[in-house]
Write a structure and sequence with these properties.
The complex is a heterodimer. Chain A has three domains: about 140 residues, Gyrase A, domain 2; about 100 residues, Alpha-Beta Plaits (2-Layer Sandwich), CATH 3.30.70; about 80 residues, Elongation Factor Tu (Ef-tu), domain 3 (Beta Barrel), CATH 2.40.30. Helices cover about 20% and strands about 35% of the residues of chain A. Chain A has eight helices and 19 strands. In chain A, the strands form four sheets. In chain A, strands 10-11-12-9-3-13 form a six-stranded mixed β-sheet, sandwiched between helices. Chain A has a six-stranded antiparallel β-barrel with strand order 14-17-16-15-18-19. In chain A, β15 and β16 form a beta hairpin. The longest helix of chain A has 14 residues. Chain B has a single domain, classed as OB fold (Dihydrolipoamide Acetyltransferase, E2P) (Beta Barrel), CATH 2.40.50.100. The termini of chain B are close together. Classes of the chains: A alpha+beta, B alpha+beta.
Chain lengths: ~375, ~130
């Protein structure tokens, strides 16, 4: 295995006595004090995450918009400058190469925030489809009508999530009225650092994601913890990030999504534009939709009605037969019960249906419930 | 190294369990280091009283928010009693791993197996060697 990489906040994590684990090739905090405490901090006050491992691929030039339009399931042309939108990067058979946040920073300047584990595969896919290389530095000659740049290694990303996030950021300069609303972005000087503040997140609580240069990351991280102390902000790790996103039923690539899974199976229909709009994977999605196969898989959310915790890869059982698999499961700190996501045949996926999860060879009762869980 | 407790009167295993000898039976739990490493414990599954354990073989399961771990029997014997309170309050293992958070009471079938366990000092040393996080 190759050497683990460190984010610019590594020293800060060590100082905060984080428990560091390997994740997507990086050494990252799974928790600082306790997953439960960090989870509750986000739901009730605020939590600050280092998600610098995530990647950023920039598209600029006159052809950026039409190129992204072809690559992504979400509409690109209608996205206004200063806005962000969730979308999927599909292969020809409609499977998800990655799920991404698309941000339009300027008229001809967009970037995709991609999952850390998928930076390489997303970059390779984009290069193969667009026919030009993704550079690691800005192109010297800016005359061409499309430049692709991978700024993942220069960009740090912090996520400040929770109901107190807005109050905390206003202490660092911006007026409350200036801060971006949900799925909007705006640039500020925070603690002396040029920061792109995005009204997005991955927790199901309100909050912001903050893009800064590596050099400024620690300064902003420390400033937020300092000014936010009286608001009860906690540094929060990947453990809480996972329990939070799961309560919000937000998909995680590698669990709910992979290159064999379509956005329709994953219940992400609303992030897919009309199938005649010519994006990659649209034809495959259209023929699958036309086939209308009742045995096609469908993502469900379930809660355990008996004692037990569902985990990824456990079997989902109905009438003694294995009908699917759990993709993610956790005890929910907010609800005080165990919840999970998984795939079953569409004909057996309606809310209210009883199932069992096979936990260590024992079938433990569960019920399909509405998503999100909270 | 973090400030773990290793009470002198207990014996320990390399699987991070503790054993308190009480006459011809023993009480078993997990160590302070183990509960700290696991994090928030949310589920404990124990055998029924009367079950037979085999030294080194799993006798139950303990789950934190993120991980599932086997509990390995430090000794062969018969389960006399389990800590039923853990069904509703598994967090007792975090809060009081050497007290309220005990797991099972066992009657060892082979007292000589006690000789293979570590005392608190030896166990502390084994933790220090493994615990590079702190």
């Amino acid at each position: 295995m190759s050497e683990l990489r460190r984010t610019p906040l590594y020293a800060a994590h060590v100082r905060l006595k984080a428990r560091l684990v390997p994740f997507a090739g990086f050494e990252l905090p799974i928790q600082y004090t306790s997953i439960r405490e960090e989870h509750t901090a986000v739901r009730e006050r605020a939590g600050l995450f280092d998600v610098s491992h995530m990647g950023q691929i920039y598209f600029s030039g006159a052809k950026a918009c039409e190129t992204l339009e072809r690559l992504l399931t979400c509409a690109v042309d209608s996205l206004k400058v200063g806005c962000a939108r969730y979308g999927l990067l599909l292969n020809e058979s409609g499977g998800c190469i990655d799920d991404v946040m698309l941000t339009r920073e300027a008229e001809d300047l967009y970037f995709l925030c991609v999952n850390a584990s998928n930076v390489e595969s997303a970059r390779g896919w984009i290069e193969s489809q667009v026919g030009i290389k993704v550079g690691l530095t800005p192109e010297a000659e800016s005359g061409s009508d499309l430049q692709l740049e991978d700024r993942s290694d220069q960009t740090a990303l912090l996520a400040l999530q929770g109901p107190a996030a807005k109050a905390i950021l206003t202490k660092l300069g911006p007026d409350e009225s200036e801060l971006p609303k949900r799925f909007r972005v705006a640039r500020f000087n925070l603690a002396g650092a040029d920061t792109l503040v995005s009204g997005t997140g991955y927790t199901g609580s309100p909050g912001y994601e903050l893009y800064v240069s590596n050099a400024d990351a620690e300064k902003v991280f420390e400033a937020i913890l300092e000014v936010g102390a009286t608001d009860g902000v906690f540094p929060a790790g990947l453990g809480a990030r996972d329990t939070l996103r799961l309560e919000a039923a937000l998909a995680l690539h590698g669990h709910e999504l992979d290159d064999q899974t379509t956005p329709f199976e994953a219940g992400l229909d609303r992030f897919v534009k009309p199938l005649d709009s010519g994006f990659i994977g649209a034809e495959a999605l259209a023929s699958k939709a036309a086939a209308n196969d009742p045995n096609a898989r469908s993502l469900i959310g379930f809660e355990m009605t008996e004692r037990g915790i569902a985990r990824a890869d456990y079997e989902i059982v109905s009438a003694g037969e294995v009908i699917g698999r759990v993709t993610s499961g956790t005890p929910s700190p907010t609800l005080g019960k165990s919840i999970g996501l998984g795939y079953v045949p569409r004909s057996q996926s309606e809310v209210g249906r009883m199932l069992a999860i096979r936990i260590r060879n024992k079938d433990v009762a569960a019920k399909i419930v509405e998503r999100p869980f909270v | 190294m973090a400030d773990y407790e290793f009470p002198d009167e207990l014996l320990f295993t390399s699987d991070d369990e503790w054993i308190r000898v009480e006459g011809d039976s023993v009480v078993i739990g997990i160590s302070d280091f183990a509960q700290n490493q696991l994090g928030d414990i949310v589920f404990v599954e124990l055998p029924d009283a009367g079950a037979i354990t085999e030294a080194g073989a799993p006798f139950g399961t303990i789950e934190s928010v993120k991980a599932v771990s086997d509990l390995c029997a430090p000794l062969s014997g018969e389960v006399l009693e389990i800590n039923e309170a853990l069904e509703d309050t598994p967090e007792q293992v975090n809060e009081s791993c050497y007290g309220e958070g005990w797991l099972i009471k066992l009657r060892p079938s082979d007292q000589s197996q006690l000789g293979g366990l570590m005392n608190a000092g030896a166990y502390r040393q084994s933790v220090e060697e493994r615990d590079s996080d702190f």
